[in-house]
Amino acid sequence: MKQQAITSLPLSPEVERRNRMIKYSVAMGIRVVCIVMMLFVQGWWLLIPAAGAILLPYFAVIIANVHSDPRGGTVERPGAILPVRPATGERPHDPTNGEHL
User: What residues does each domain of the chain span?
Assistant: First the structure.
């Protein structure tokens, strides 16, 4: 079994939560800018900040909840290893003595 290194472990829940909060806060900051822009923009240009103010909360939640671990490693533990099952029609193989059961 391959031994896990500390650099291959996933992010801790606290760090992951902090990253999600930063992404959501940035998106909501952009939404506030869109709302303020709606006060100064006229004509058809008003649709752009209005669309941003209306649609951004939905996309902010989606972007904040997307799991993006830059390391991308998965942790393997002995309890999660499952035995390989033989294909249908084959007899199970006993690895201790090399005979078919």
Answer: 10-66
